[in-house]
Amino acid sequence: MQAVPSEFLDIDRKARANKPFFDLDLRPPEVRTCDFDDVVINFDPERAMLEAARCIHCPDPAPCMVACPTSNDIPSAMWLIEQGKFVEAANIYHQTSSLPEICGRVCPHEALCQGSCVLNKHHQPVLTGQLETFAVDHERRTAGYVIPLGTPTGKRVAVIGAGPAGLGCADLLVQKGYEVTIFESKPAPGGLLVYGIPNFKLPKDVWIEKWEEFERAGVKFVPNTYIGKDKTIDGLFAEGFEAVFIGVGSEIDAKMEDAPGTDLPGVYEATDFLIRGNVEKNLLPENMKEPLKVGNRVVVIGGGDTASDCLRTALRLGSEEVTCLYRRTEKEMPGGKKDRKMAREEGAKYRFLTQPVKFIAGEDGQLAAVECIEMRLGEPDAKGRRRPVPLEGSNFSIACDTAILALGYWPDPILGKTTPDLEVHDWGLISVRNKATGATSRQGVFSGGDCVTGPDLVVTAMVGGRNAALAIDEYLRNKK
Ligand SMILES: Cc1cc2nc3c(=O)[nH]c(=O)nc-3n(C[C@H](O)[C@H](O)[C@H](O)COP(=O)(O)OP(=O)(O)OC[C@H]3O[C@@H](n4cnc5c(N)ncnc54)[C@H](O)[C@@H]3O)c2cc1C
Question: Are 319 and 225 in the same domain?
Fold first, then answer.
C-alpha cells in the first residue's frame, strides 16, 4: 500500500504528464571508455525534484509498484523527493529493499518500474531507478543509514553466500534479532555485485559503503570458506546454528562443448574475464591474480547482459575491434536494450545469426581466429524462441586474438551432493517446497536467489533472501 495515497494529493495529472522530460545524463562514450568509472551522472537535488514531479500518482496500487519485484512504494518516494524530503524518501526504499542504492543502479528499470509507468503511453516514463539511486546516495552523504536491530533472540543463523540473496536474508534476520554469520567462498562479500557486475555499472565504493552497514549491524563474515568442501551444512548445525540459508547463486560458466579449441590461450570464460578485468588485485581469489592478456581484436560469444558487460570491459581494456557474435537475431537477444545501446555507443559491433564452431590457433599456439557458420531461424522451441539452424557450407573465419564465452551459467551441484536429504534438480538448482518461503526438503534449511531460480536479477535474488528470512524467523519462533 502507498504511504501517501494519491487521493490525498492535490495534483493536476495532465500538467504533470506534459512537463518536459530530460533523459539520463551519461558521460560521453569517448570519455567513459577511458576508465571504469560510473557511466551515469547522478542527479543533483534540483534535477531530482523536477524529475520526481513528473510522476502523475496513479491510484493505489500504482503499476510501477506492482512491477517492482520488491514492491517499493515508488509513488510515495516520488512525492517526498519532489518536496526535497530526500532522507524520508530513502527510508521508503529501506522498508522494502536491502540494497536500494544497488537496485537503483543495476535493475533493468525499462522492463520493471519504468517499463510499467503509464506515462509510457504518450510520454517518457519517470526515471524512477535513477531517483532511487539519488535519494539513497543523498541519505548516505548527509544523514547516513543504520540497519535497525531487533531485540536479541540469542539464536544463530548461518547464511551461505554473500551475494544479494544472502545479504537480503542477513539484513532482515538482524532486524529480527538473530546473530548472523555469512560463510563465503570468495575473499570478499558481495557475490556478483563484486565478482561479476562491472564497476562502470556499479562502482565498488558504493558496494564497500553498503557492506559497512552490515558490519555495523554485527553481521559476521567468514571468507574463503567453501561450504560442501571446507565445511558441510550438517557441520554448521553441529556448530550451533539453528537454521541455514543457502544463497550460493548459479555461477559456473556454461561450456561450448561441441566447438574444439576453447582451451587455447586467448579464450576466456566470461566470469574469469570480468573478474580479472574489473576487480582490484587484493580482492581477487588466488587463482585469478595473473593479469589478463587482452588483444586488439576481441569476439564475445553470447546475447545476454554478461555479453554486453564483456564487450564494454574489453573496450575499456583498450581493445580496438570488439564484436559480439550471436546465433539468433537481435530480436531474440535476452540481454537488456539499455546495455546494448551503451555498448554500441562505446564502439562494440554485433554480428547476428553467427555461431562459432571452432577456435583456431596461430603459429605461436595462441588464438588467431574463430571459425563460424551462418545460421537461419527455424521453428520455435518449447519456450517460443525460434531455433537457430546452421546453413550448411556457409563457414567463414573471423581473425581475433581474444574470445570470451558468455553463454550462461549453471549451479554448482556440491551442496546437493554433500547434504543428506537436500533435494536438488536440473544439475544442482536447490528445490524449494514453498516458493514464498524458500523452505527446502531439509528442516531448518532455506534457500533463495539464483541457486533456486537459475540466473536472474539482483532484485529477485534479494527478495528471495528477504522472504526466506521471514520464514526462518517464523520457523525459529515456533521451534520447540
Ligand atoms: C556479468 C553479470 C552481470 C550482471 N548484471 C546484472 C545487472 O546489471 N542487473 C541485475 O539485476 N542483475 C545482473 N546480473 C545478475 C545478478 O548479478 C544475479 O542474479 C545476482 O547476483 C544473484 O544473487 P545471488 O545472491 O543469488 O548469487 P550471487 O550473486 O552469485 O552470490 C552467491 C555467492 O555465493 C558464493 N558461493 C557459491 N557457492 C558457495 C559455497 N558452496 N560456499 C560458500 N559460498 C559460496 C559465491 O562466491 C557468491 O559470492 C548479472 C550477472 C552477471 C554474471
Answer: no
pLDDT in tens, 161-200: 999 999 999 999 999 999 999 999 999 999 999 999 999 9
Q: Does one domain contain both 199 and 69?
A: no
- 148 within some domain: no
Could you list the beta-strand ranges (E) of 262-394. Answer: 267-269, 297-301, 321-325, 349-351, 354-361, 367-380, 386-390
Residue 286: pLDDT band (50, 70, 90) is confident
| Domain match, 380 and 288 both | yes
Identify whether residues 224 and 325 lie together within a single domain: no
- Would 150 be classed as within a structural domain? no
How many angstroms separate the alpha carbon of residue 133 from the centre of ligand 1? 21
Residue 158 DSSP class = E
Q: Which atom of ligand 1 is nearest to the CA of 189?
A: 49
Q: Are strands 297-301 and 396-399 parallel, antiparallel or unpaired?
A: unpaired
61 upstream amide cis, omega within 30 of 0:
yes
Residue 1, pLDDT score: 78
Q: Give pLDDT tens digits for 447-476.
A: 999 999 999 999 999 999 999 999 999 999
Tens digit of each residue's pLDDT (9 = 90 or more) over 205-221: 999 999 999 999 999 99
Report the SS3 class of residue 46: helix
State the pLDDT confidence band at 47, using cuts at 50, 70 and 90. very high
- Do the domain assignments include residue 168? yes
As given in the structure block, the three cell numbers for residue 142 are 548527509
CA 258 to chain CA centroid, nearest Å: 29
Q: 159: CA distance to ligand 1 center in Å?
A: 14
DSSP 8-state symbol, 271: H
- CATH code of 415's domain: 3.50.50.60
Inter-residue contact 293 to 403 (CB < 8 Å): no
Which of 340, 451, 270, 310 lies closest to 111, judged by CA? 340
User: Which atom of ligand 1 is nearest to 228's Cα?
Assistant: 41
**Domain interval for residue 242:** 156-251+411-478
User: Cα–Cα distance between 198 and 41 in angstroms, integer?
Assistant: 16
DSSP assignment of 60-97: SSPHHHHHSTT---HHHHHHHHHTT-HHHHHHHHHHH-
Name the residue at shortest CA distance from atom 39 of ligand 1. Answer: 248
Testing ligand 1's pocket by substitution, the residue of 99, 458, 460, 467 carrying the most ligand atoms inside 8 A of its CB is 458
Residue 5 has pLDDT above 80, yes or no: no
Does residue 219 share a domain with residue 187?
yes
Q: Locate cell 548459479: which residue?
A: 250
Say if residue 318 is in the same domain as residue 399: yes
With beta carbons less than 8 A apart as the criterion, state whether 353 and 319 touch.
Answer: no
pLDDT of 66 over the 80 cut: yes
